[in-house]
Amino acid sequence: MARISSLLFWVTCATVVSSTSITDIQGVAWRSPFVGQAIANLTGLVTAKGPSGFYLAGDKSEDIRASNGILVFSSLSTVLKSVTVGDFVSLNGKVVEYRPAASPDYLYVTEITSPTNITVLSSNNTVNPVILGKDRSPPTQYFSQLDVGPDGFLSVPNNSSQISVVNATLQPEKYGMDFWESLESQLVTIPRPIATNFQNTYGEFWVYGDWKTTGKNGRGGLSITFGPDGIPDGNPETIIIGSPLDGTKNPKTAVGTTLSDITGVVCYQFGFFYVLPLTAPTVVSSPDTIVLPSSIKSKPFAICSLTFGDYNVENLAPTSSHLPTIANHIANYLNTPDIMFIQEIQDNSGPTDDGVIDANVTLSTLVNSIAQISNVTYQYTSINPIDNQDGGQPGGNIRTAFLYRAEKLKLVSGSPVGGSIDAVEVKRTLLGPKLNFNPGRIDPTNAAWNSTRKPLVAHWRTKLGFDLFTINVHLSSKGGSSSTQGDARPPVNSPIEARTAQVANVATFVSSLLHANPLASIVLAGDFNEYIQTRSVYKPILSLLTDIDEAAGIKPVERYSYVYDQNSEQLDHVLISPIVKLRGVQFEHVHVNSWAPTIGARVSDHDPSVGRIRVC
Ligand SMILES: *[C@@H]1O[C@H](CO)[C@@H](O)[C@H](O)[C@H]1NC(C)=O
Ligand SMILES: *[C@@H]1O[C@H](CO)[C@@H](O)[C@H](O)[C@H]1NC(C)=O
Ligand SMILES: *[C@@H]1O[C@H](CO)[C@@H](O)[C@H](O)[C@H]1NC(C)=O
Ligand SMILES: *[C@@H]1O[C@H](CO)[C@@H](O)[C@H](O)[C@H]1NC(C)=O
Ligand SMILES: *[C@@H]1O[C@H](CO)[C@@H](O)[C@H](O)[C@H]1NC(C)=O
Ligand SMILES: *[C@@H]1O[C@H](CO)[C@@H](O)[C@H](O)[C@H]1NC(C)=O
Ligand SMILES: *[C@@H]1O[C@H](CO)[C@@H](O)[C@H](O)[C@H]1NC(C)=O
Ligand SMILES: *[C@@H]1O[C@H](CO)[C@@H](O)[C@H](O)[C@H]1NC(C)=O
Ligand SMILES: *[C@@H]1O[C@H](CO)[C@@H](O)[C@H](O)[C@H]1NC(C)=O
């Protein structure tokens, strides 16, 4: 009798086991069909252990959408001590979809919590990672099937749906987030990883491995580009490497650092898919630290040719320790262009919030520093903002400014310098368009420019009487955006409404200038805080002006001025009027910062650029 009941018991439990595997729990969609349910006698091989639990691998499914990995969440030392990597175990627990309450824009992680009856059934089993690039490879263009719209992950409306709500069936062959989700909590190997960014303050860094990539630039980073179907490609084939599970420390990386193979578990945290390495990788090679100066040089006796540079100098104050390096970049890497478009010049007291708004000390300190290196003494012009009304570091009153070589060009006289809230306008004269203020700010009281820098417009004349109009912009920054791998699809691109209105406002001004003279030479440059692939923002201006990268034939993968998260990307742009395009241009991005050997060696988060145009 006793024998029979124990046999019955065995049969019942065996039924539970065969009906609930890890692949069943993971399922083929974003959220588990078993959420909230108690699971008995779940079996799996311990593949990795960390401070907050261990990872189990169950039998593989024929269906690659269903991950056979799962995290058994526990920070109890009794639990953690009860298993060793290579143990084949059985346990009871509860299926949970976890996301921190304070982070509603993250994805859920499927976990087993409150594990009990952890029984080691056998030990010293071989643990085989999935070799990425061989067993499975990530798709290279799209993040999510919910990123609908012509601009893909950069489309508006943003956050029109959420992954966790739609809970779609995974399509790991096509969508990067689905790919990583289909490997959730599995042990993977990334062969021959290459870093696409500096490490962040937590020692984490982005990589791709030995698999197909798109957007690869000459440095080894991956640039945001358009895919073959014209939809933006945000490089979902990359993954961030988190803190090693064994407590070792990751090495420092830069764009293009190559590393030893990384084996670790796929997880989702802090808004991104990660691989948590079993142990820290080592650096195999570092990219060349030499950045060559631009080949574009000012020609002292050229009649028609003018050189220009564009540089966001990141919160430059008179006492900034990075000021001499910025001066060195302008002198020795950009070759002291005839005119410089500069962004983020702070007032004379820097970030001290004391009512000071003048920036003449900041600008003359920069000019003197450049003169000491190059013998070129720039003149400068800018317009003060109203105290604390233009955004940026509080008290810093950042603004855009022009530096110019008076032996090459001068501000056209006869118009006063505009004040903070004077709107620059185009006046038609018999001798061509003139500005009512020179320099002046575009539509400074328009709500579009609330809390941000107003564009600075200047009208120049060369020695031989050829005119040039320049517009220096610094649009609202992307602060407040959600992650490229977050729940909100397309990701929240903050504040895209503001940047769209700002570009439209600049386009209205440019249009009035071209209306007055369709052959006006115009250069619009600066920090737009937006990729050109976000076409909805640029639409009004690109019907008037041309992207100089395009006109100069810069390869799309080499168009970047910034590295952020997984991508090399272009926030800084130069747009030119039709006649300037027609006369021919030269242009170069000078990667003095994106190619820095360490993040600490960078003096600005932006790279400068330099170009040559002709005004006749
Ligand atoms: C639990 O599963 C293991 C492995 O399949 C099996 O050996 C064991 O008998 C099961 N236990 C019960 C109580 O069903
Ligand atoms: C998600 O989809 C799976 C598979 O269709 C389903 O079993 C599960 O209940 C869904 N979960 C939610 C929260 O919609
Ligand atoms: C504990 O696990 C063992 C091994 O899988 C199994 O035989 C036993 O029935 C489980 N006990 C409970 C109470 O789940
Ligand atoms: C596992 O292997 C190690 C070394 O190979 C050995 O010392 C240990 O006794 C083995 N453990 C079991 C449970 O077989
Ligand atoms: C972007 O998403 C935010 C947050 O859901 C929303 O407030 C905003 O209106 C959206 N903007 C656009 C242009 O889609
Ligand atoms: C996206 O929209 C949802 C639903 O309106 C909202 O709950 C969520 O906070 C939004 N996400 C972001 C990042 O703004
Ligand atoms: C800055 O401007 C103030 C007020 O016009 C002037 O007194 C001062 O000399 C200027 N300083 C420099 C370095 O140009
Ligand atoms: C700057 O001018 C001085 C004096 O004319 C000269 O000695 C020096 O070589 C020049 N430096 C550069 C970088 O042109
Ligand atoms: C301007 O921006 C500030 C700060 O972002 C905000 O508090 C204020 O409401 C905005 N004003 C208008 C008119 O949009």
Automatic annotation (TrEMBL):
Pfam families in alphabetical order: Exo_endo_phos (PF03372)
Domain Endonuclease/exonuclease/phosphatase as annotated: residue spans: 327-606
Keyword Chaperone: no
Coiled coil: none
Keywords linked to the UniProt accession: Signal
Segment forming the signal sequence: 1-19
The keyword Hydrolase appears for this protein: no
One term of GO molecular function: catalytic activity
PANTHER family given in the database record: ENDONUCLEASE/EXONUCLEASE/PHOSPHATASE FAMILY PROTEIN (AFU_ORTHOLOGUE AFUA_3G09210) (PTHR42834), ENDONUCLEASE_EXONUCLEASE_PHOSPHATASE FAMILY PROTEIN (AFU_ORTHOLOGUE AFUA_3G09210) (PTHR42834:SF1)
Protein name (database record): DNase I-like protein
